[in-house]
Design brief:
mainly alpha; 7 helices; about 160 residues
Length: about 160
């Protein structure tokens, strides 16, 4: 798994194109990873990659920051961040969520959506912007540094 992740990073670092464009593709993908509506990430990745004229493959790949291993901490962090920003009380959410999981009724869903919907969306957007900003600058700096090291090893290549 470690080798596969390293291979992905190396393929991004070796891409042709401007470092800012590669970094923007990664940042868009990372932002989409925090998007609160599951099932829309792929469509959003392709649409935004086309809109911003960046690599759809890199954009889609970066959305996989949100995956089965990270989705719970990512979305819980977003919920708590949003609750902090909106000053929402989410203390009874686990009971409501448990009730909905055992008996998925519309009235329970609406009550749950009202109590956590706004804080969750706000948290997703805020953390998405923060993570995307970090990803942009980290990727841009990494691509520039990698290309500089590569140029020193093989000058003129």
């Amino acid at each position: 798994m470690k080798a596969k992740i390293r291979g992905i990073f190396l393929s991004i670092l070796n891409m042709s194109g401007e470092p800012k464009d590669i970094a923007l593709a990664v940042a868009i993908g990372v932002f989409i990873a925090f998007f609160p509506i599951l099932g829309t990430h792929t469509v959003l990745a392709f649409a935004l990659a086309w809109l911003f004229r960046v690599s759809p493959a890199v954009t889609l790949g970066a959305t996989f920051v949100n995956n089965p291993w990270t989705i719970v901490p990512l979305y819980l962090g977003s919920l708590y961040c949003g609750a902090f920003i909106t000053n929402a009380n989410i203390s009874g959410v686990s009971d409501e969520l448990g009730a909905y999981m055992h008996n998925p009724r519309w009235d329970i869903f609406v009550k749950l959506a009202k109590s956590i919907g706004v804080p969750f969306v706000v948290g997703c957007l805020v953390l998405g912007v923060v993570a995307a900003t970090i990803a942009y600058f980290a990727t841009k700096k990494s691509v520039i540094a990698y290309r500089g090291r590569k140029e020193k090893v093989a000058p003129g290549a």
